[in-house]
Amino acid sequence: MVDKQLEKFERWIREMFENRQKSEVCYHNMDHSLQIVKKVAEIGEYYNLSKEEKEDLYVAGWMHDIGYWEGKGEGHEIKGSEMAQKYLIELGLNQERVDRIKSLILATKVPQNPKNLLEEIICDADLFHLSSERFFEQTLLLKKEKTNLGFEKTSLSEWLKDSRLFMLAHHYHTEYAKIYFQPGKEANLESIEMKIKEAEEHSKAKSEGKKKDKNKKKSERGIETMFRITSKNHLALSALADNKANIMISVNSIIISIVVAVFIRIIEEFPYYLVPTLMLITTCLIAMVFAILATRPNVTNGIVTKEDIRKKKGNLLYFGNFYEMPLPEYKEGMHALMDDGTYLYDSMITDIYYLGIVLSKKYFLLRKCYNIFMFGFVLSVISFLIATYIFEPIPR
């Protein structure tokens, strides 16, 4: 497709949106199509598509919802593909490309079932809004559009429940979307579940006239969210530290294996490499020790007494405090914990605090490990170079 054809197509499609787009169609409009065009281009760059493939996605992205220009949206993919057939032939495209673009338009029909990479790309771009920061704004626009087009009205709670079911049944197809879109979708799904709970609790509180209780629950949800996010962040940091330590252990093990296998055999022939070799081995060993210390678990005595529970001192949320307790005592302690909100929150605070202490120790040891490896490795390389320069005979 030459540049003039693309320019002509874009002028035509924009004019058609301005002239034929219905005002009640507030979601499947030009803004939505523009978003899809941008997203197919973004995903297409990831896969290094050919110029022709990018152009086909570009055209299909613009035209995938033009079926909304006619009717209420039922079968709009088929209508859109028929309109594409007529115009693209007039534009000068061959039938093979027109058929491919029509297939891309039809692939966006829900439930999606793409047959190839290009269809997967446009399907993921079409439902990008599930992962967008503007998800709730856009889903409410879609709800409004349904109402405008004469579909049965639904309450906000029912709409959110339907949206949740749709999101649970949906999955992204391309590797790119799974990496970059899926996290946002999961965050929106978690948010929508919270909004459903809020809507249900609001409705219940309103019917029972318990406004104070509603405010209290809202505060408790905020506290629970705070604890959940804080614990999640701590665990993520702990996993990151363990991964870094494992990398250092692996790297240093490989270096030691190579040094022992190679240099030890030639040390008699090149004795001046002895000191640099020992420096490198020592550096790797010390770095490994610190990396192992950073990942070494530390378990406490595993017993919380009934007296500790009675005085609200025992933390039953950490396995190291209860793994040697009899099951009946543990159950009794957990029931006491669940029945006392203050005790529960104190235990959670204590758990987060000591997790932070453990993290601090991990990162302190890990920093030592990296510093030793960095400086020791540099000094070892320098010593190898010096030994080579001083003792290697200069060729004549």
Describe the structure.
This protein is an all-alpha fold. It folds into two domains: 3-209, Hypothetical protein af1432; 219-391. Helices cover 74% and strands 0% of the residues. Helix 3 crosses helix 5 (95-107) and helix 8 packs antiparallel against helix 10 (182-208). The longest helix has 56 residues, at 211-266. It is flat, with a radius of gyration of 32 Å. InterPro entries: HD/PDEase_dom, HD_domain, PycTM_dom. Keywords: Antiviral defense, Cell membrane, Hydrolase, Membrane, Nucleotide-binding, Transmembrane, Transmembrane helix. Residues 200-219 are annotated as: Disordered.
Look at the structure and name the CATH superfamily of the largest domain. Hypothetical protein af1432
- Helices and strands: which structural class? mainly alpha
Shape: flat
DSSP strand (E) fraction?
under 5%
Largest sheet: none
The domain tally reads 2
DSSP E strands, number: 0
Low-confidence stretches: none
> Would you tell me the overall average pLDDT?
83
Count of helical stretches: 15
Q: Please bin the fraction of helical residues.
A: over 70%
Alpha-carbon Rg, integer: 32 Å
Give the helices and strands as they follow along the chain: HHHHHHHHHHHHHHH
Distance between the termini: 66 Å
CATH topology of the largest domain: Hypothetical protein af1432
CATH class of the largest domain: Mainly Alpha
For the record, the CATH architecture of the largest domain stands as Orthogonal Bundle
